[in-house]
Specification:
heterotrimer, A: mainly alpha, two-stranded antiparallel sheet, 13 helices, globular, B: alpha/beta, Rossmann fold, 2 domains, seven-stranded mixed β-sheet, five-stranded parallel β-sheet, 43% helix
C-alpha cells in the first residue's frame, strides 16, 4: 500500500484511490526501472561515457520539467534559469571554494531551490500563457545576471572545473567514476519524481491540472500545491544542472539561455508529457541527434523543427504516450 | 584470407610507397558551421585543410591523413563533448581551427589532458598563449593583443589620438577594449569614453550617437560578427564617418566587408594577418581556394592551411605523431609557407608573422569583388605580437 | 544650458527619437501578433522568422529579379502573407480545438525550419541591402542627424498601425472580425465565412511582419537570425500591452521603444533586459497587461 505522507493535511476529502501493487509500483513500471538500470550499467561499456552522462543529465532535467508541465499543468518557459544557475554555482563552488563534488552539487541544487521559491511564489499567481511569460521574464533576468556577474566569466563560462574526490576519498578522474556518480544521481532524481507523482500530493496536482476551480471548491489550497511542485521541479532541474557542470567540467551561458528552456519543452513533448518515462526518451533522442548530426550544421535545427511540427500534428502524446496507448497501460 | 590481404597490402605499401615509416593522422576540423563564424571558418576551413594535405603530398611521404569535421555551434559544452569524443573514441590526433574563444579555451584544456595537439586558427583570445598556454597548443593566425596593437598603435600614430569605444558587453569585448586602451594610452592617445552594448545587438544607433557627441576622433568597435556589421552599417547611415570621425574595427574579417559592401564599409581601418591579394603566392593559392569554395579565403582559413602544413612537416621530421614531440618540433623548425611567409613559433605556442593595417577601399578604388583592402602599414613579426615575457605563460621561464 | 541627469537635453531628445524608431518595429510586429492571437488564439512564434523572411524576399527580389525597394514594399507583404495563408490552411488550422501550447510549439518548429533552410542557403554573415536612393542622406535637426530613412520608418509604421486600427475598430469588416473573436459560431450563423476570415487574418498578420522585414532590410543586416532574438522581445511587448489588444500592442510597442532608448543612455548594459523587468512588474500588478481585459 502507498504510505500517506502528504505535505499538507487537507480537508476531510477522501484521497483518490489508486490500485497499487508491489510497494506502490505497478509491475510493468518495476520492469522498466530494472531495464533502465541495466541499460545504465551496460551503456558506458557500449557507448561513449560522456555522451551517456549528457543524456542522463538532460533526461533528469526533462523529467523535472515534466513534473511541472505534465503533472502540474504549468508551462514554464524559463526552466533554463534553474538548470543554468545551479550549474554555475556548483562549478564555482568546486573551482573557487574548493568544495568536494557532493557539496558543490548540493550548493547548486540549493540555489536552484531558492530561486524556484522566489520566482515560483510570484509566477504561480498567473495562469496559462501569462505564467509562461512571467517565468520567461525571470529567466531572462537570470541570463542577464550570468552575463554581467564577474564570477560567471561572461561567455567563456567557468571552465576547467576540477572533478575532485567524491566524499573526499573517491577520485573522479576517470570518466567511469563520474559516470557511476551521475547514474546514481539520475536514479535518485527519477525515483523522487516517481514518488512525488504517485503520492497523494501528486494526485491532488493532477486534480488541479484537470480542473482547478473544482479542486479549490474541494478545499485544496491550490496555490500551495502549485508552489510546492514548482519548487520541486526547479530543485530537480538544478540537480541536473549542477551534475552537468561536473560532467563537462564547465558551466556556460548556453545553460541559462532561453533556447535551453525551449529545448527542454521539445524533449518533454517529444517523449510524451505527463508520462513518467517519456522525458527520458525525449532527452535521449534529442541529445543523440545533436551529437551525431553535429557535422550537418544547420540541418540539426531543421530536423528539430520538423520534429516539432510533426510531433504537434501527429503524435501529441509523444513517443512514450503512443506506446502507452498501444499497451493500454500508463507509462 | 584476411591476414593474407593485410600482408599483401603491407608488402605492396612497402614496395610502392617505399618510405621507412607510415603514420596515420586524423585531423579534426572543429568550427562554427552554422552560426556567425560559419563564413570565416566553416566548410572553407575543411577545404583549406584538404588543400594542405594535398600540397604537402602526405601520402607519398608515408603519412596517411584523414580529415573529419564538426560544428561546435559556438557553445563550449558542445565543443568540449566533440573534442573528448574525438580524442577518446575516434583517435583524432589533432584538432584545428576552433573559432570562438570560449570553445577554444575548453578544447585547449581537453587537448592538454588527453595529450593531443591543438592548432588554433580561429579564436582571438590571447590567453591561449598566456595564462592558459599549453605544451600541446599552437595559436596560429591572430589574437586580441595583436589586433589591439596593430590597429591601436597605427591609428594613434596617424593622428587618431582620442578614442571612444563601443564595446560588446561580454568577456571578449572587454578584453579587446582593455588591450586597445592600453595601447592607445601607451602611444600617447586618450580614451574619452566607452559604452557597453548588450550582446548580441541589432540597433547600435543610440550608442553610435553617444560616440558621436563625445567628439572623439576615432570610434573603436570592440565587438565581432553581426554586432560589427550592424554598427558599421549604422555608422554610415548616421553620417558618422562623413562627419570626420573614423571607425576602427578591432575584429573584422574580409567576409564581413563582403557582407557590408564597400559603399558602407569604405574608410574602415582594421588589422588582419592575411589578405589574399598580398603577393603572387597568396594570389595563386587563393585562386585555387576560390575554385573549390566559391569565395576568397579569410585569414582564419589561411591559418588552417598553414598550420596543418607545418604540422605535417614536423610529423615527417619526427617520424611519429607523439603530441609533445611534434609540437616541440613545430617550435624548433622555422615556418615557411606561401600564405604567411617565413616565421617562427615561440615557446608559448604563439606563431608570429607580420601584421597588416588595412583601410577598406571606396567603391571607385575597387576593381571588383574581393578587391577590398589597401595596406596602410605593416607591423613586422617581431613587434606584432605580445612580447614573450608579458604573457604570463608557464612554459616561458 | 541645463542638463538633465547629466545628459544635455538635445542628446536626450535624439535618443528618444531613436527609441521611437525601434518602437516602430516593435509596434508593427506586436500588432501582427496581437491580431493573430485575438482571432486565432494562436501564439505565433513564427512571427520573427516571417519578419526575417520579409527581409530575405526583398533581397531576393532585388538580386534575382531586379525589383527594387518600393515594389518590394508592396510585393513582399503579399508574398509573405501568401506563405502565411498556406501555413495556416495546411498546419495551424488543425490546432484550433487544442491548447495554446500546441500552437506555440508548432510555430516554434516552423521558425526553426525557416531559419535553418535560409542559413544553409545564405550563411549567416548577412546580406547587404542598400537604402533606396530617394531616402538616402538625412536631415540635420540641430540636436542630431536624422537619416531620412529612419524618419520614413516611423512614418510608414505609424501609417500602417493607424490604418490597421481604423479597419478593425471603425469598419464593417473590423466589426465582423471583432465579433468572430467573441463568438465564432454566432458570426458563422449570420452567414459569414469565419474560417476564410481566420485564414485571411493570419495572412494579414504575417504580411505585417513581412512589411516590417522590408523596412528593416536596409538598416539591419539581412540574416537568418534577425528575427530569432527579436521575437522574444516582441512577445514581451504583446504581453505587456495585453494579449489581443490592438491599440495596446501599438502603444506599448512605441512606449517600450522609448523606455529602451532611455535605458541605452543611462544603463546601456541593461537595455536588453529592461523590457523583461517591465513585463514581470506589469504582470504582477495588472495580470492582463496594460490594455487587456481580464478573461
Amino acid at each position: 500500500m502507498v504510505s500517506v505522507t502528504d505535505t499538507e493535511p487537507t480537508s476531510a476529502v477522501a484521497e483518490p484511490r489508486i490500485r497499487k501493487k508491489t510497494m506502490g509500483m505497478p509491475t510493468h513500471h518495476m520492469a522498466i526501472f530494472a531495464m533502465l538500470l541495466a541499460a545504465g550499467i551496460v551503456a558506458p561499456f557500449m557507448l561513449y561515457p560522456v555522451f551517456v552522462m549528457k543524456v542522463l543529465c538532460f533526461a533528469l532535467f526533462a523529467c523535472a520539467f515534466n513534473l511541472l508541465l505534465g503533472f502540474g499543468g504549468l508551462l514554464s518557459f524559463g526552466h533554463a534559469a534553474y538548470f543554468g544557475s545551479a550549474s554555475y554555482i556548483s562549478a564555482h563552488a568546486a573551482k573557487v571554494w574548493g568544495l568536494s563534488p557532493e557539496l558543490s552539487i548540493l550548493a547548486g541544487t540549493a540555489t536552484a531551490a531558492l530561486l524556484g521559491l522566489a520566482f515560483g511564489s510570484l509566477a504561480i499567481r498567473r495562469q496559462g500563457i501569462y505564467f509562461a511569460m512571467v517565468t520567461l521574464a525571470f529567466a531572462q533576468m537570470v541570463y542577464f545576471f550570468a552575463l554581467q556577474a564577474p564570477f560567471t566569466g561572461g561567455e567563456d563560462g567557468i571552465q576547467g572545473v576540477p572533478r575532485g574526490n567524491l566524499f573526499g576519498i573517491i577520485s573522479l578522474q576517470s570518466h567511469f567514476a563520474v559516470y557511476w556518480m551521475v547514474l546514481a544521481i539520475f536514479f535518485i532524481g527519477i525515483l523522487i519524481i516517481y514518488r512525488i507523482i504517485h503520492s497523494p500530493f501528486g494526485q491532488v496536482l493532477k486534480a488541479i491540472r484537470e480542473n482547478e476551480p473544482r479542486a479549490i471548491s474541494l478545499g485544496y489550497r491550490v496555490n500551495r500545491y502549485k508552489l510546492t511542485v514548482f519548487v520541486l521541479s526547479a530543485t530537480l532541474a538544478g540537480l541536473a544542472g549542477a551534475t552537468k557542470a561536473f560532467v563537462f567540467q564547465l558551466a556556460s551561458l548556453t545553460d541559462v539561455h532561453w533556447s535551453m528552456s525551449g529545448e527542454v519543452v521539445l524533449m518533454t513533448l517529444l517523449g510524451g508529457m505527463g508520462t513518467v518515462f517519456g522525458p527520458i526518451v525525449g532527452a535521449a533522442v534529442i541529445v543523440t541527434m545533436q551529437n551525431y548530426l553535429a557535422t550537418w550544421g544547420a540541418w540539426v535545427t531543421i530536423v528539430q523543427g520538423i520534429i516539432f511540427v510533426l510531433g504537434v500534428l501527429l503524435f501529441r502524446e509523444g513517443i512514450v504516450g503512443v506506446l502507452s496507448k498501444l499497451i493500454r497501460k500508463p507509462l | 584470407m584476411k591476414l593474407k590481404t593485410i600482408l599483401l597490402g603491407s608488402i605492396a605499401a612497402a614496395v610502392f610507397a617505399a618510405p621507412a615509416y607510415a603514420v596515420d593522422i586524423k585531423i579534426g576540423v572543429m568550427n562554427d558551421r552554422s552560426g556567425i563564424y560559419a563564413d570565416i571558418a566553416g566548410e572553407g576551413s575543411v577545404v583549406a585543410a584538404r588543400m594542405a594535405v594535398e600540397d604537402f603530398d602526405a601520402e607519398s611521404k608515408g603519412i596517411n591523413v584523414e580529415i573529419v569535421s564538426a560544428d561546435h555551434q559556438n557553445k563550449p559544452d558542445v565543443g568540449s563533448t566533440i573534442a573528448r569524443q574525438w580524442y577518446d573514441q575516434e583517435n583524432v590526433d589533432v584538432i584545428v581551427d576552433v573559432p570562438t574563444s570560449s570553445v577554444a579555451l575548453a578544447v585547449n584544456d581537453i587537448t592538454r589532458e588527453s595529450d593531443k595537439v591543438f592548432l588554433n586558427s580561429g579564436a582571438a583570445s590571447s590567453d591561449l598563449t598566456g595564462s592558459a598556454c599549453s605544451p600541446n597548443t599552437i595559436h596560429w593566425t591572430y589574437d586580441t593583443w595583436q589586433l589591439a596593437n596593430g590597429t591601436g598603435r597605427a591609428v594613434v600614430e596617424n593622428g587618431g589620438d582620442s578614442w571612444f569605444f563601443v564595446t560588446a558587453d561580454y568577456a571578449f569585448g572587454h578584453a579587446l577594449e582593455r588591450d586597445t586602451s592600453a595601447v592607445v594610452e601607451g602611444a600617447g592617445g586618450t580614451i574619452v569614453g566607452t559604452v557597453r552594448t548588450p550582446f548580441p545587438g541589432t540597433d547600435f544607433s543610440s550608442f553610435l550617437l553617444q560616440a558621436q557627441s563625445s567628439g572623439a576622433k576615432v570610434i573603436g568597435l570592440a565587438n565581432a560578427g553581426g554586432d560589427t556589421i550592424n554598427s558599421i552599417k549604422q555608422a554610415s547611415e548616421f553620417g558618422i564617418t562623413q562627419g570626420g570621425q573614423s571607425l576602427a574595427g578591432l575584429l573584422v574579417f574580409i567576409n564581413d566587408i563582403h557582407a557590408l559592401g564597400l559603399d558602407v564599409a569604405q574608410g574602415l581601418l582594421l588589422t588582419e594577418s592575411f589578405y589574399w591579394d598580398l603577393n603572387d603566392q597568396t594570389r595563386e593559392w587563393s585562386a585555387r581556394f576560390e575554385e573549390e569554395n566559391g569565395k576568397k579565403p579569410s585569414m582564419v582559413q589561411a591559418g588552417v592551411y598553414a598550420s596543418i602544413l607545418h604540422y605535417l612537416k614536423a610529423v615527417e621530421a619526427v617520424g611519429d605523431k607523439g603530441a609533445q614531440d611534434v609540437v616541440a618540433k613545430m617550435k624548433e623548425l622555422p615556418t615557411d609557407d606561401p600564405l604567411f611567409g617565413q616565421g617562427e613559433i615561440r615557446a608559448d605556442g604563439r606563431k608570429i608573422h607580420d601584421s597588416y593595417l588595412f583601410r577598406v577601399k571606396s567603391p571607385d578604388e575597387s576593381e571588383g569583388p574581393w578587391d577590398y583592402y589597401e595596406t596602410v602599414s605593416t607591423t613586422p613579426a617581431a613587434q606584432a605580437f605580445r612580447p614573450l615575457e608579458d604573457g604570463g605563460c608557464s612554459l616561458v621561464q | 544650458m541645463f542638463e538633465l541627469l547629466g545628459i544635455p537635453p538635445q542628446a536626450l531628445f535624439g535618443q528618444l527619437l531613436l527609441g521611437l524608431i525601434n518602437g516602430s518595429f516593435y509596434a508593427m510586429l506586436s500588432l501582427g501578433l496581437a491580431i493573430i492571437f485575438g482571432l486565432l488564439n494562436i501564439i505565433n512564434f513564427t512571427h520573427g522568422a516571417q519578419y526575417m523572411l520579409g527581409a530575405f524576399v526583398a533581397w531576393m527580389l532585388l538580386n534575382y529579379l531586379g525589383i527594387g525597394y518600393w515594389w518590394a514594399l508592396l510585393l513582399v507583404p503579399i508574398i509573405v502573407g501568401a506563405t502565411g495563408i498556406i501555413i495556416e490552411r495546411l498546419l495551424i488550422s488543425r490546432l484550433y480545438h487544442l491548447d495554446h501550447l500546441y500552437g506555440l510549439l508548432l510555430t516554434f518548429g516552423l521558425a526553426l525550419i525557416m531559419q535553418g533552410l535560409l542559413r544553409n542557403e545564405y550563411g549567416i554573415s548577412g546580406l547587404p541591402y542598400g537604402i533606396p536612393a530617394e531616402l538616402a542622406g538625412g536631415q540635420n535637426l540641430g540636436f542630431m542627424f536624422l537619416p531620412n530613412y529612419r524618419g520614413w520608418v516611423v512614418i510608414a509604421s505609424l501609417a500602417v498601425c493607424l490604418g490597421t486600427w481604423f479597419v478593425i475598430e471603425k469598419t464593417r469588416l473590423g466589426a465582423y472580425l471583432r465579433a468572430a473573436t467573441e463568438n465564432p459560431t454566432l458570426v458563422g450563423a449570420f452567414g459569414i465565412n469565419v474560417p476564410l476570415m481566420i485564414t485571411l487574418t493570419y495572412g494579414f498578420g504575417v504580411a505585417l511582419a513581412g512589411f516590417a522585414g522590408v523596412l528593416a532590410a536596409p538598416i539591419y543586416s539581412v540574416n537568418p537570425n534577425m528575427g530569432a532574438d527579436l521575437i522574444i522581445v516582441v512577445f514581451a511587448v504583446v504581453v505587456i500591452g495585453g494579449m489581443g489588444s490592438i491599440l495596446g500592442s501599438v502603444l506599448t510597442g512605441f512606449g517600450l521603444g522609448l523606455v529602451e532608448g532611455l535605458t541605452r543612455v543611462f544603463y546601456p548594459e541593461g537595455s536588453a533586459v529592461v523590457i523583461f523587468v517591465i513585463m514581470a512588474i506589469v504582470l504582477m500588478i495588472k495580470p492582463a497587461g496594460l490594455f487587456g481585459r481580464t478573461a
